[in-house]
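Sample intake sheet
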Amino acid sequence: MVALCGIVQAQRHIEFQWHGVYVTGDMSYGMNINRTPDEFDVIGDTLSCFMPSVTAGFSFRKEAAVGLGFTYVADPTGAYRQMPLFVELRSHFTRARITPYTVIQSGYTLPLGASSEATPVSSTIEEGGLYLGLEVGARYAITRHMAVAGHVGYRFLQMNHVHRRDIEGTSLVSPPVVLHVLTAGATFYFSN
């Protein structure tokens, strides 16, 4: 009985590996919040999508980790398919089993040659742009080297040159497209 109590007590105080190499796999759901009147003709009623991402990095200490990663973003019409590449700064506030954390990401979006022909106006991303991400959440350590987390966040995606054509094939003037995306998701952590 005493041994069982000792095992239960030890499980409550798992300290997640806070230094060394880490890898995260994330699945977020995002929704664009800055719709403009002409967007209806370009991308339909909604711009919401799942955004899987992978990050690998190094934790110097619990408050400081740096990583490199990528995300895949594609709306249902296929008009805005792109891959942001980013540098990430990650901070966990405690070494406890459950800890709050923040993430800041900065990078560049690479267009993936996507175009939309399903609407009266076709769109093709020809040049990517700035990518910024902010995230807050809580991580739960399953073991010393594996954890899960839930988070909410914001992502800013810019496309510097989007080529648009109407049904007759006439080119339309297109300023840079900016997306402000609210996200919620789950992350899986692995560390050495």
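Comment: The first strand starts at residue 20 and ends at 32. The chain has two helices and twelve strands.
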